[in-house]
Amino acid sequence: MDWKLEDDRPIWTQLTEQLKRRIIAGVYPPGSKLPPVRELAAEAGVNPNTMQRALAQLEQDGLARADRTAGRLVTQDAEALEAVRTAQARVIVQRYLNEMAELGYSREEAGLLPQKEETI
Amino acid sequence: MDWKLEDDRPIWTQLTEQLKRRIIAGVYPPGSKLPPVRELAAEAGVNPNTMQRALAQLEQDGLARADRTAGRLVTQDAEALEAVRTAQARVIVQRYLNEMAELGYSREEAGLLPQKEETI
DNA sequence: ATTATTGTATTATACACTTAATACAATAAT
DNA sequence: ATTATTGTATTAAGTGTATAATACAATAAT
């Protein structure tokens, strides 16, 4: 999974999102140690300050906590992770349906398109 | 349809998107005259300069053109409008599927959820 | 004990976005 | 003819984002 950054939203928010996705997807398993800020920043090609900000948000969202010098650990609360995952999914589905509705697609059309997106 | 503005992306890009949606949805029919910049700006609660920028982008995308003092007219090319609509839909569907995949949902799950989003 | 690694903080700079306040040119309305 | 309306341009100020360059404190590694 690469670091994909668009330029229309603050980088640090996008970094937080992608860190969340990696944690949810098991790239950084519960209880494991995250790579150091500087390393993550280098990977993503951003300034360490920017990655630091993204990690601070991750921490505020309860998905990791810093141990000063021991590094930064992913939360071990598997239920919390699953809760985040379903919450994210709900947001994504709702936004999808909303956007399609604004384009004038019916609920049925919007519901069917993701299964055969070649037909669009 | 209200002017919904989030604060994590430039306002002018969001305004352009919503103007597009209104045109596609027929709020501003093909060939019709758009409200003046100042009026649109007042409606949306933004600075006229910001709305001006959004309209300039709309123009660059070929959905309207300005007549100096006669106001700004929506394109009459209905086919172009339909093309924009399907292009938008394609983007939305693809992004939806991509985001769900990143959360670890299979193609089938992602395709089914929009039809019964209550189950999430 | 010394060194390296880690998270964190600070200061300065540059840039894009947004608002505010005007102003101008062209033409529609009167 | 005069006025109002329209799109457009300009200048200034404030804010948030991102980078760059350092520095510090705590502790793991040696």
Labels describing this entry:
homodimer, 120 residues, mainly alpha, three-stranded antiparallel beta sheet, 5 helices, elongated, DNA-binding
Structure described in brief:
The structure is a homodimer of 120-residue chains. Chain A is mainly alpha-helical and 120 residues long. Chain A has five helices and three strands.
Please provide a written account of the structure.
- The structure is a homodimer of 120-residue chains.
- The first copy, chain A, is mainly alpha-helical and 120 residues long.
- Chain A folds into 2 domains: 11-76, Winged helix-like DNA-binding domain superfamily/Winged helix DNA-binding domain (Arc Repressor Mutant, subunit A), CATH 1.10.10.10; 79-119.
- Chain A is built from 5 helices and 3 strands; from the N terminus they run H-E-H-H-E-E-H-H.
- Chain A has helices at residues 11-25, 37-44, 48-60, 78-102, 107-112; strands at 33-34, 64-66, 72-74.
- In chain A, a hairpin with a 5-residue loop joins strand 2 and strand 3 (72-74).
- In chain A, helix 1 crosses helix 3 and helix 2 (37-44) packs across helix 3 (48-60).
- The radius of gyration of chain A is 17 Å and the shape is elongated.
- The two termini of chain A are 27 Å apart.
